[in-house]
Amino acid sequence: MSQTFVAFEALEKRVPPQQHQSVCLFALPLYTIRRFERINERSYISAISLTTWHGMEHTFEFRAHKTTCENFCDALKGNLNEQIPSIKALKHFIADYESEHILRVKTIEDFSSVLPTTHGLGLKFGYPDEVDTSMDILKIRQWRDYFSAYGRNLTMLQIPKLSELVRSGLPNILRGEIWEVSSGAIYRRFDNKEEYKDILKMHKDRTSLSTHEIEKDLHRSLPEYVAYQTPDGIDRLRRVLIAYSWKHPELGYCQAMNIVVAAMLIYMSEESAFWALEILVEGMLPGYYSTSMYGAVLDQIVLEEFVEQTMPELKLHLKKIDIQLSVASLPWFLTLYINSMPLHYASHVLDCLFLDGPKVLFKIGLAILKTNEEAIMAAEDDAELLTIIKKYFATLNTAASDDIDSGKDKNKRISKFRQLMKIAYENFSVVTNETIIELRRKNQLKIVGGIESFTKRSTMRKLKDTAQFNKEEISIIYDHFFGAIYYARDNENTGGNTMDRDTFRKMLKSMASWEGPEINDDSPQADFVRATGKSFVNRLYDCFQKDKTKGLNFQDVVTGLGAIMHGDFMSHVDFFFDMYDHDKDSILVNSDIASMGCEIFWLLIQLGTVKELAWEAVDNLFLLSLEQTSADAFSEDTVLEWKSKFQIAEGAFSIMEDQNITHLTDAFLAESTPLIELPLPIFRMVALTNVCLEAFFQSGFSTSIKLEKVASERQKSLGKELFETLFAEGKKLANNMAQAHNHRPSISIQKPDSQNNTPEPVEDFF
């Protein structure tokens, strides 16, 4: 007993495959107890009788010292008195629940007509599956009998019959309430009755990073369901996600939340879905919906341990050919199979998840692998694995092969989905919520490697253009790119998957030979080197960047590096032409050529070119550009006069004597210098007239960038820092199991006389 609940769990267990569950358990809110009575028939045995709001009487017999029993009763009486204010709100709170309406209507056929459409989008827009009306009515009748005999909404008991009803498939119209009761969200909603509305009111018209992300994902949320093609459906989804992001600003909004909430809103009201989401995120699936997805990644490690226990040959095969199981299974867990299976089957998975907890995700995942084990054993890479699973999900509504082979009547054959669920519950009893918690605790230190491995593989797979890089080279670029972002994480201009100019330059320092260490000298020459290098890197950044409104993403870097490292002479010349054509008019003018000459001179010196040759190359670039442009407009003598302005006495130049290059660019930009308009074909010809320039464009620049693995010590440091960041959150996954009470009362249940009829049989789940 707590201040607000009295809980009971019978010692007796159910029959296999549910042998880990009690035959009866419940958590009864004290505000639902109408009457409390002590029963002292014998001096050495004490008992109490509790009558609930719905008229059910529970009798508890204590097997403990009488003084202990009296202390329990006194504490219970005190706690009940404190709940009187909550009792007053109970009638209004439960009035709209489906289980209340189902006992009032004369016929089951009239049931849905008395419910408000705010209960779920399905009441207004229809449900995803084609329901057999006669079977649905039979199931509703079964639930009506259960509600009458064993309580409903806030007072419902959990006995084996409840599991049978849930696993046989919930009626659409009752699904939302059963989810809310099974998960415990109903109690949280009662304790915080106005909070959802208050959050929306308090933050009306306010925006945040989360609200912007939510807006992007709204129309990607189950677009195949008709309600999400209407303002009503989109508005409900928006309100739930926004309210959650404001209630939990440290988490805000994470992708996949929209998919889960969109599915729940088909069957639940907004407020019910809001509290069910909180139960999922904080209780059942901690860490799934976070930036790092550490909970979901950790559960992939747990899943692989279960695969090793139950299907060792399959595990060996996947390891041998380097197939990453999480490529297929992580989306199952993150979206709770909603994006993988047809929606009406995924809803049935949620039925079981809310009742039985996270073990359901593992059982179904293992059953999928078991069912397709033979095909997966023949797969040779990730792509084949994904194809096998995708084809299987597309055929879940067809008859199971065992039934086809056995010649059963087609009306009695079970679908592949029912076969899947049967395998999940019958073949994998080793998977329990207790075992999952233990394996999470055992494997939590592996989470950093798991997150890095999956994220890296997923990012690499999503590349639309690999720019002729092989898998290993892409992996190295990934390490440099995200390593630079990680170490620049304190820079507020750096996003999680994009880099700004400063971060780009830091990345290049580990890859390009011309990006050497910082120069701490304050001389004019050092200022020139720093300014020129920064100017070139910024120009390269702009050339790589495809979307000018965002930072540089991984695809931009791969594509840009590919253009440099895998190009030929002509493509490199074109690359530089485009990089310096600032107004993109396909013409280089004086300022463009001056900037190019200055920065190529800097690059050549950084790459170790003899200074005289570097100067000759740049001088040649300037003079030939002038000559090619001005030949028709000026006499030969005039051209020679301009040439003399750009010549420097032999031996009088040095990279540390910035006056020389400054003299050259100043002369080139002077008002008296003819306007140069150099198109790409002429620029290509100019690049071929100097041996040093030709070598630079042919291979000098492209070979200056090296793809070398990040130093192991740096990787260890990164892993350590990532671990420290995640460890505090990861500890949530190692929650201790609740300690059993020393004294457990026995229980007898007295059903109302009017409900002693035996319920009609419903279709068996299996």
From TrEMBL:
It comes from the Eukaryota. Residues 169-357 form the Rab-GAP TBC domain. PROSITE patterns: TBC_RABGAP. Residues 745-759 have a biased composition (Polar residues). Residues 739-766 are annotated as: Disordered. It holds the Pfam family RabGAP-TBC. InterPro entries: EF-hand-dom_pair, Rab-GAP-TBC_dom, Rab-GAP_TBC_sf, Rab_GAP_TBC_domain. GO terms for molecular function: GTPase activator activity; small GTPase binding. This is Rab-GAP TBC domain-containing protein.
